[in-house]
Write a structure and sequence with these properties.
By secondary structure, this protein is an alpha+beta fold. 34% of the residues lie in helices and 27% in strands. It has a four-stranded antiparallel β-sheet, with helices on one face.
Length: 96
Amino acid sequence: MFIVSLNYTSTLEEIDKHIAEHLIHLDKQYSLGNFIASGRKEPRTGGFILATVASKVELESILASDPFHREKLAEFVVTEFIPTKTSPELSFLLRT
C-alpha cells in the first residue's frame, strides 16, 4: 500500500484548469481497484491518495498519466505503508 502526497507547485487557477481531467484519472484508478481513498489537503495546497497497487514502479506509471503530474502542477511524494493494525471495517487492508 502507498500514500501519495501531492503538493501543488502552481497556482490554484492553473490547478482548476485541470481538475476535471484529474478527477477522470482518479475515477479510472478507482474503477481498476488501484486507489481506495483520496482528497484535498486543507488548506488547499495539494492532496493525498491511498493506493493499493502491487509495486512502486506500477504506481509511478499510474501517477505519470495524472494531468497534475503531466503538466508539472504538483510534486508527488510516494511513501510505502504496511498496515499492521486497523479498525474492523478496514481489516481488508492487512496483509495475510
